[in-house]
Amino acid sequence: MVIRPNQRKEGTVRLTFIRTTSPTANTCPTLFKTDRGTVIVQGYVVTDEEALSQMNIPEGETAVEVPMELLEELRETFANAG
């Protein structure tokens, strides 16, 4: 499910920590599950103009970078949860 700006729900989003590969708490990269059925990615903002030119990023969105290791751990977490 993708929540676009005109579809955002009102109210506070409740986050549940999923996983990080960061050795320091509250830094990126980190993944959170929301109570809206979405995932929030905390990562480094992509500032590389060449990379950004290859994407079509609309106003109100941004690109963040996370290591593959974190995504692999996420897959393992959900595979073992069910």
Describe the structure.
The protein has 82 residues and is an alpha+beta fold. It has one domain (13-81). It is 23% helix and 23% strand. Strands 1-2-3 form a three-stranded antiparallel beta sheet, with helices on one face. Strands 4-5 form a two-stranded antiparallel ribbon. It is globular and about 40 Å long. The model has no long low-confidence stretch (mean pLDDT 83).
Mean pLDDT: 83
Order of helices and strands: EEEEHEH
Task: Name the strands of the widest sheet in spatial order.
Answer: 1-2-3
C-alpha end-to-end distance: 20 Å
> Percent range for helical residues?
10-25%
| Count of discrete structural domains | 1
Please tell me how large the radius of gyration is.
14 Å
So what's the oligomer here? single chain
Structural class: alpha+beta
Number of beta-strand segments: 5
Work out the helix count.
2
Globally, the shape reads: globular
Task: Pick out the low-confidence regions.
Answer: none
Largest sheet: 3 strands, antiparallel
Provide a quick synopsis of the model.
This protein is α+β, with helices and mostly antiparallel strands and 82 residues long. 23% of the residues lie in helices and 23% in strands. It has one domain (13-81).
